[in-house]
Amino acid sequence: MELWLVRHGRTSANEEGRFQGRLDVPLNGEGRREAVLLSYRLAGAGEFGLLLSSDQQRAWETAEIISRGIKLTPLQEPLLRECSWGYVEGLRRSEVEAAYPFLFYPGSGRLRALRCGGEGERRLLARTRALRRKINRKHGSFRRILLVSHGRLINAFISGGLGLSSRQKWPYAPAPASLSIVRYDPASGLCRLLLYNDTSHLHV
Fold first, then answer.
1. What is the torsion angle, in degrees rounded to the nearest 10, for the CA atoms of residue 180, residue 161, residue 76 and residue 134?
2. Which of 60, 98, 128, 188 is at a distance of 20 to 30 A from 140, taking alpha carbons?
3. Is 82 a known active-site residue?
């Protein structure tokens, strides 16, 4: 099974460097333009069996734009929601660093979501495992499925699928409106990364 992972288009919070998490932020004008360009690309990529999306506004709006290109009605999947950043949501990284420096892992610059009341790496990995199992259980007959989600969730989905643990640094940070593809093997529960963070459709 191929899982095509799309990050939502750009938002004003992206441009301002804010932690979005579970905030229900809409796409901005540039994000809608990115989603349209992505829909053109996906329309020429062959047939998809299913389109699943996070129900958060920025992802759902991206999925609705894509749906017009690939002629599939999007379905909401709550497991595709972004991870929570707790009480720092809405703040810029610089603001968090100044006010709460203890929230970051020493030497790595990574924010410890659990410490700010958010969703820690272990829980996030467990959610992505549950998502893969649910997709296989409910939609295992489809060869290719398109998933529209968020940067941190896609980060965890790929990292967990490749066998990385919550203790390891996850090297993935997909850009807005990017496309990544994994081949998922339900028997092992693992993935093979076929394409990562492709934004070539945005540079036409």
1. 140
2. 60
3. yes
Q: Which of 2, 34, 82, 89 is catalytic?
A: 82
**167 — pLDDT class (breaks 50, 70, 90):** confident
Dist CA 59 CA 181 (whole Å): 17
* Residue 160 neighbours by CB distance under 10 Å: 24
| Tally of CB atoms within 10 A around 168 | 10
Residue 139 annotated as catalytic:
no
Nearest to 151 by CA among 21, 12, 18: 21
Domain boundaries, the chain: 2-202
Amino acid at 111: L
Record the pTM: 0.95
CATH match for 2-202 among 3.40.50.1240, 3.30.365.10, 2.60.40.10, 3.40.50.170: 3.40.50.1240
